[in-house]
Fold these 2 entries.
Entry 1:
Amino acid sequence: MVHSALESPTPIETETSRMGMYEEELKKFNWSLIALEVILFALGIWNLISATAVEDKSLGLYKTQLLWFGIGIILTAVILLVHYSIFSRLGYFLYFVNLLLLAAVLVVGRSSLGAKRWVGIGPFSIQPSEIMKLSMVVCLAKYFETDRTVGGFGFRDLLLPALLVLVPTGLIIVQPDLGTAMILVLTSATMIFFNRVKTRTMLILGMCFVVAAPIVYRFGLKPYQRQRLISFIDPMADPKGSGYNSIQSMIAIGSGQLVGKGYRKGTQSQLNFLPEHHTDFIFSVWGEERGFIGCIILIGLYLAFLLNGLGVAYQSHDKFGLLLALGIVTIFFWHVFINLGMVCGLLPIVGVPLPFMSYGGSSLLTSVICVAILTNIANKKFMF
Amino acid sequence: MAFLGQEEQIREFQERFKFLYFTVFIGLGLLIARLVYLQVLTGDKMRLYSEENRFKRVKIASPRGMLFDRKHRLLIDNRPAFDLEIIPQYLSESKQSKEVISLLSRIIQMPEAKIYEILAKAKNQPSFMPVKIKTDLSRDEVAVVESWRLDMPGVQVQEEIKRTNIYGDVASHLLGYIGEVNSTELPTLNKAGQRYALGDVIGKFGLEKELESTLRGVDGEKIVEVDALGRIKIGKEKSRVIDTHQEKLPVPGKNLILTIDQDLQLAAVEAFKDKIGSLVAVDPRNGEILAMISRPSFDPTEFSRGISPALWQKLLANENHPLRDKTLQDHYSPGSTFKVVTAIAGLEEGVIDERTTFKCTGSMRVGNRIYHCHSKRGHGDVNVVSALAQSCDVFFYRTAQALKSVDTIAMWAKHLGLAKKTGVNLAREVPGLMPTEEWKLRRFGQPWSAGETLLVGIGQSFVLTTGLQLANLYASIANGGTLYRPYLVKEIESYEGKVLKEFKPEVLDQTRLQPKTYQLIKQGLWGVVNNPTGTSYHQRLPGMDFVGKSGTVQVVRLSADKVYQKCDTMKFRDRHNAVFAGFAPAKDPVIAVAAIVEHGCGGSIAAAPIVRAVIKKYLETYYPDIYGEKILAARFKDQLKVPKIPKHTDDSDVVQVEEEDAAIKMRREQKPVAPLAPNLIGIEPGTVPKPAGADSESDSREEEE
């Protein structure tokens, strides 16, 4: 009896020390991005319930959103188990698979609101253009990882990356999905310029843009896209038509004033004056019901998220990790900036969702995977 | 797993991060600045814009005033009606729309095809707008629809106000009907300073029309919340955001207390059965109209929400003209009921007195023409009292002859209320006609002939009256000569029941009869009903002193051999009109009644019983201590038998009248007043088809077939 009493503590001690080791590791683990993601998503769901409360057909949409988030969390767990260098190895493969999906959209895609953006996989319907943003970043990170150019890129160096970007961009433009195409170009451009481009090349590119812009405006844009640009410059030119969305969105946000109208009391969204209020204009719902204070809190969260992401990139000890993290943060930045700029009337109306807030499975899933990859990079930095 | 040699490049990259941080801060800073502008600096203005977006002013219809009889019994009410509606949007969203329609078709007993047809017609309007499938659901149907509500998305029951005549077709002409204001009426209406909108309800006929401004209330206004498509938010959503204190409550219209006694109305309708004609009862002490009915009638409730074209057509095509108010829109020859006027003229002018007797041999000759009495054998020596009682034509020929000029008779007729509109508060009253010498010259360019005066003396020739004038004439005689303007509205009350205005009797003519004249006329009229030789003896009301005068008027020109033909063997449209006018009790009359029964054959057999029923009802209900059934039964044990009405009209007072063609022609020209078209469902005003033969002479009652 006594003997056993003496012996019994030993296994417990061992267990405790082992636990301690895990704890140590868990303590070092960078949870901050996932924490911010969960907070933003929770606010997003809360807001989405309000935004979809009125119309019967969108009543249960938040459940679908929760389901997608659940799938995202599982994928997060999977991604955290592997080293992110797997993306370096799979980089081009992912890119080409995604490219095929984009092509498939044009052939067998599902239409909605006059655009062919979805492709059915089993019971789900996904938007390959959303995933393309990540694939693009992975692909470019992989491409620049091995790059040894000194003193910035010239035109010749830019040829291949440009091709890598423009092929999917072209496929997305013909869907048409101008917003995503724009994000794709902006994100890629940010990454390329971050890798340094020769000053001369930059200047020439700038001049080309100035020359090309009016030509593209005149011949490259569809009438409704041109109309949006006009509306952006002068929304009151056609307040019931193309300027309507922009005006109603500004009214929604502005009428929220300092503290907002209160949860589910936003008349602009609840009474359908606000278009697309569960997708692209979700921030207007938030702004109307939660007011300036709510908006500052939300922007603060995004800022914390972006700074954390940049921190991950900064502290990354390898080039691929750095570029990958940087690219991912860039995606988020452009989304947040363009979406908020658009609903506030700072930018023309283009269909860009707000990460974690807007309804949309593919967008959410992509965002969650992005956060998982960032977290992965953040926690592998000591391994080198 | 970075490659060797990357470290330097990474350090280079890290230096560039400051640009990235800078961009992030600038970008988000810009957004915050914009939010400061929108939410803090211009937030008030934006809030205002959003309020303007969501609120819309809508009208709350004010309840129309109600109509009561003199005893405050409700005659016209605003009652809820239930309509079945489908909102196509919700129906098409539900997958089982076929099942819904089939279920609905069984509940409301309407073929599915018909429902689809109605829905197809409404295809062009926005799909969120309800489509009316069936109006006026029964309570049972409403209950069933409500219980299946969850299984029938898009189906709803809508409550609406329906102007309801509680007693159906009783007194429809006097109460009138309402309809929606149409686009053609709108400019003239609003020029008068009123504020009507398309679709507002307005009185179209009868008192509903004449007292429109009293009955109509002031509409309220409420602010409702609408969504971007203009749909009004209902249910829970409303209470959450609506600000109810901005409502302006509607002011209900004022109520009318009529002089009408519904008991008398019902008694009259019951006595009329399916006869055609009119009855008017007046209080001779003040001119209050106690009863006023025109048969056949219609139910105004059917008009209150738009009448169906089929029903309207049916009413128009009915040869008995249910839409016309026979109490004042139609001229009738008064026949023998007019003889009181001749008698009064004779007595007052001193050409006859109580001792004057004429010998009636059955006819009299004036110039080379023979004027017949209705009695072939003649009445022998008659004085004014017995002449009235037996309706001796010869006596009144003589009296008229003695009066010399028709103008004297006309003057007295006018004193007693004939030949001019009474001015009752109802539109489309016809004036009646009392010929004078000057009138004939003007009208026909021919001088008056002496023979015509004789015919006027017995109420024939050009003499025309309305049922209302006849009642008022007898009321005037009953009170000894004072002519009141007959009126229908006793009081105007606020919706809370406070009396706002009381209407006082209005005297039109004060020419009092000499007491002797008054007594003799009353004796004569008493004899008609209470003397065994009187024409209407079988109609007497023992103990009630009911007096009156019958009249029977031929409506087509009859050849000499047909004059004494039995009336009920003739074609219906050729039969004589029956007229009866009287009052009761003889001593201090409280009610005067006139009834006209078209093609009723005999005044005393067709019209008198109706007058009798109304008078009996009135005396019994208002003076139960004197005229109560039990009290009278005790006093007049043996006499209270049901009167035996003779089968044939042997004692009727039809006379062979060889009238001028002009008289008959003129009566023919008394075109009926076309009824005012109410709003028809699906028919624009002005396109209402005319009834067959509305303009042809077949519509005129005095015409030969």
Note: Chain B touches chain A through 46 residues (CB under 8 Å).
Entry 2:
Amino acid sequence: MPRVLMKGNEAFGEGAIRAGCRYFFGYPITPQSELPHYLARRLPEVGGVYLQAESEVAAINMVYGAAAAGARVMTSSSSPGISLMQEGISYLAGAELPCVIVNVMRGGPGLGNIAPAQSDYFQAVKGGGHGDYRLLCLAPSSVQEILDLMGLAFDLADKYRNPVMVLGDGILGQMMEPVELPPYSGELELPPKPWATTGTAGRGTRNIINSLYIEPEELEAVNLRLRAKYQRMEEEEKRWETYLLEEAELVLVAFGTMARVARAAVERLREEGIAAGLIRPITLYPFPDAPFHAAFSRARAFLVVEMNLGQMVEDVRLTVEGRCPVHFYGRTGGVVPTVAEVVNFAKEVWQKL
Amino acid sequence: MANVLPNIFASWPRVSIFCGALGSGKTTLALNVAWRLASEEEKVYLVDLDVINPLFRSRRFREKLAPWGVEVIAPPPAFDLSDLPALPAAIGRLLAGKERVVVDVGGDGVGATVLGAYASFLTPEAGVFLVVNTCRPFSSTVEEVVRAAQEIAQAGRVELTGLINNTHLGEVTTVEVVREGWRIVEEAGRILGLPVIFSALREDLVRDDLPFPVLPLKLFPFLPWQSVD
């Protein structure tokens, strides 16, 4: 039974602590500042280190250092701050360093505004930094799921030696929901990291963390090895949730906060006799294709709903491969589509089928 | 005993200030008290001093409150999402004047620091209430509540008048949760030498046999999936 009422931003922090994270480096920015505010108090309580860096660039490179030394480490920011971190994120991916990066998205591009948005999907899922790399990307849609996915995020980061991006937005970060906290058992027994830069004791040789490979053939081999790792993620780590998908002829697709609105819209559409259902990707990379394949036999159309002008919809189209029409509805700049808007657009799509 | 109304608002201080930890329910309390006072009597000014929470604060409900006779005092609506610690000049005049004023303060010591800037405008009649939800992080024990009270009073440069038990778990709140919160808040009040004024409780949970005074709360949903319009 839930005992605590938590803000999403606090849940990112508490979830990290319960996953054994003891290092946070970051810089405040609305709408995620409750997260560093929370960890500034909580981390010292558990013997951890909270450090407010002089900038996001410094913070992400501190993450690089702590990750290289084998620590469970995280940073968080909101859209413009995450943009500043992109060089460091590419280096983390290139050096195969595990860490967790939280992006509580706000309106963009540029300075944009502090209202909730989902317009950093491309940045999180398709690159953002330079080079052939991928981030595992998780998209919780409730405060409880933030807590749970933070644990998964750290485990996946270690498992694949890869940065993990967790996407939220201003609503998810600021809203409060009752939660059940994951167990807290003090220091966790985590798998050893024999590659970490922990000195030569017991090993005789020093470990080196690096992403510089001067010979093209050597760098190509590194990239091929990374690709094999990404393929393994695609085989093993796809996660999703469906709602009323069985028998659904009109399939809504949404992630994070937008999935809460879409779910309410599906309920309204069902009340009006329209066979609607929902696919909610939980991993945005790797993108979950299985629920789409399961829906093909009945689905007459997909409707992707996002708080942007159409980003995840591209992955839906790649997955659907023209077998079914894919429609899109989105608001941007910090405007959140209402349940009524989504319902009305869905009805228009339905009537034209 | 269950319903604190109408008696408590007959002698309610001209200026009532709601402070407390982040997410303790100050805005909901301020909105409810402003609405109750406005429905009983004259015009009420609701001063929004929250410069740290951009999403859920009194100014968001400006248009909903206006027809009830509650005027929200905050920078112009165009600046609602400005993320700037801007405050209108009218606040000092209202606090020191004769009008009915309700003040919604930002969370924790950092939020209360803004209140500290107005210490010289406050008259001794002002009521300063600490809103407590013991289901929130850093407010779950007597020690934590006492610490929060001292930190906020110091940052806000005020003396607290009393505590308000706003313990709840959102949709899964039970009366037992509220009772347990009352026990913790009452004990903290004993240590601080302060009374617990009432328990705030969602309207549908109010019963006649509760062993403490209750203010039935009107909720102000603001999440996009909570409204069908």
Note: The first strand of chain A starts at residue 4 and ends at 7.
